[in-house]
Automatic annotation (TrEMBL):
Belongs to the short-chain dehydrogenases/reductases (SDR) family. It comes from Aphis craccivora (Cowpea aphid). GO terms for molecular function: oxidoreductase activity. PANTHER family: DEHYDROGENASE/REDUCTASE SDR FAMILY MEMBER 11, DEHYDROGENASE_REDUCTASE SDR FAMILY MEMBER 11. Gene3D superfamilies: NAD(P)-binding Rossmann-like Domain (3.40.50.720). This is Farnesol dehydrogenase. InterPro entries: NAD(P)-bd_dom_sf (IPR036291), SDR_fam (IPR002347).
């Protein structure tokens, strides 16, 4: 995913499940992630 490095991704459902796993993978790949979730406490 080097071609995405430095880009911004918006991930919905980022507090749990597939959304959380996707957000983590994207951050590790060098993207800036904007996480959207209904429960702010679970994002932190």
């Amino acid at each position: 995913m080097d071609h995405l490095k430095g880009r911004v991704a918006v991930v919905t459902g980022a507090s749990a499940g597939i959304g959380a796993a996707t957000a983590i993978k994207l951050v590790k790949a060098g993207l800036t992630v904007v996480g959207i979730a209904r429960r702010l406490q679970r994002l932190q």
